[in-house]
Amino acid sequence: PSGRTPLMAGNWKMNLDHLQATHLVQKLDWTLRDGKHDFGAVEVAVLPPFTDLRSVQTLIDGDRLKLEHGAQDLSAHDSGAYTGEVSGAFLAKLGCTYVVVGHSERREYHQETDEVVNAKLKAAYKHGLTPIFCVGEGLEVRQAGEHVAHVLAQVEAGLKDLTAEQVRTIVIAYEPVWAIGTGEVATPQDAQEVCAAIRTKLAELYSGDLADGVRVLYGGSVKANNVAAIMAEEDVDGALVGGASIVPEEFASICRFR
Ligand code: PEP
Predict the structure, then answer these.
(1) Measured from the CB, is residue 219 less than 6 Å from ligand 1?
(2) Any binding-site annotation on 12?
(3) What is the pTM for the complete model shown?
(4) Pathway involvement (predicted)?
């Protein structure tokens, strides 16, 4: 899609201990190389639980793997009395490129509002991390036909007070909640409709030039057998993959979508 390098990002969610993580990263790298994966043409990132990050970093650095890695969440705060939280500063030290912000599971189970998401996006930039900023509507909103308005409101609220310089590097993931972990994938046209609307919103809020460069991913039950049709859409620049990302052969096939 018009000069934007596709990104395939694997959200492992709360799965795999550090030994399993090490195994998966090695197997994924081996499978991708075996398929002569061109990492310059399609970027591949893994997003393990916090407790796996050190092992994954060590493997990637030690073996000079071309995979990127990142975390699934971060604290809005830099440091201090926030028991159980993990700061962006720590993630940066663990070599993270990316951090997911505003995943629907965080919004739903941890009451993350648009304001919290906005604070976390700011924290990510403060620590030099690239956010994968998630937005998406639930089933009722979709059935009411209000999905585009809902998602654009999330985009606008999440990006509040961020500078164009920051937003230029952001990754936005459109993840309809009804399609996450349900096996119910959005149609390519559904994905395109919302991803294109997000890009138009970015053009309105910042500039057409900025909007053209931002990667907008689709997420929600992406598998090896449905990724090609979704990736054929003009405004879809990659996928945020949950369940299928912890099966190395399946995730490698997703990365080889063409
Ligand atoms: C996700 O967790 O971001 C996701 C898209 O999950 P799944 O691929 O399992 O639907």
Answers:
(1) yes
(2) yes
(3) 0.97
(4) Carbohydrate biosynthesis; gluconeogenesis; Carbohydrate degradation; glycolysis; D-glyceraldehyde 3-phosphate from glycerone phosphate: step 1/1
